[in-house]
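for the writeup, i need someone to sanity check this before i put it in the appendix. the sequnce is what the collaborator sent (i think, or maybe the updated version? ugh). structure was predicted straight from it, no edits. if anything looks off just tell me and ill rerun, i have time this weekend
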Amino acid sequence: MLPQVTTANVSTFTGTTAIAGGVVVSDGWSPVTDRGVYFGENSDPEISGAKMQIGSGPGEYESTLTNLKPNTTYFIKAYATNIKGTSLGDQVSFITKPGYDLPAITTRINGLTTSSASVAGNITYDGGAEIIARGICWSTTQNPNISGNSTNEGTGNGEFISNLTGLSSLTTYYIRAYATKSTGTSYSDQLSFTTQGTLTDIEGNQYSTQPIGNQIWMAENLKTTKLSDGTSIPNITDPALWGNLTSPAYCWYNNDEVVNKKTYGGLYNWYTVNTSKLCPAGWHVPNDSDWAKLITFFRGTDIAGGKLKNKSGWRSADNYSNNESGFSGLPGGFVSYSGFQSLDIQASWWFSTISESSLLNAIKFANSLDILDGYPNAWSGSEQLSFGLSIRCLKD
């Protein structure tokens, strides 16, 4: 005896896909070795259409038809086969939706300089039609499109990187990723960024600066060996002394200027901060209110650390280090009477604000902002005034 099969109505479909299937209500007393649907643009699709096999055995079954044409009528019949032969269900039809689906596109900012930006786009779904062009659009006005500045990063789905060059410093740009099909061009949600500026200290060291909200921060750690009035800062190389200092001091991590100055900058005690002459003219060491404003801008201490971390340079490769801020925080470690510690796993920057606990204790402390490897958090710590930490300066 032949099996009995019914065709399921197609109730879920788009411009290019549909979910089709059937029900084997009886196997005809013999195992159903093949089942599925015939489908095509003509009636009687078992004759002129295509066949999709969807398993075997009795019961319900379904699968997704792909690469269909938009706004087109399709006919479907379920089938089931046993040793006696093949049975067909009733024919059903449906009309695909007009036009192709919109592709799914995302954008993120990888890195910034004074004149360039690295931007990633990702097409996670093509909307049922081939992507024939893709890239990034940018402008100083909102909603940029391919009629203006744009890159061309080839075809197809997946992630791509665009390097935007020739940008102006300290300028806000708007970006959107785009994907073009034969039916038109679609865009991602809009993002914006502000390019970096530059700053030079009294010794001629140059720094990138990064606008964040309504603040402008140094985008790297301070490297100077002199105060802004030209006074030299004592270079204390013996870590044992860093527990009892009561006057300004600095050093390089491991006392290795060649290896660590450029990447991590200097380590300074709080007495150097307290001179109010450590940063270049027009800049200052941030107080607790300044740091709080930065952390709040990136939605709180639980996640701000990841947004302040540089994408590389940390011991662990984690999903938290996205440098969304452009702050480019690196783990420069610190120095105390116990020696040099935590390079590549901890970043610590001084507040200019003395800790309230110092009013009651013989050993004085000041606040710091701490970020640790492998965590998205940004902590407000409290460090002994004699210890050596990194410095970030903030524009007045």
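The radius of gyration is 32 Å. The chain has a mean pLDDT of 92.
thx in advance!!
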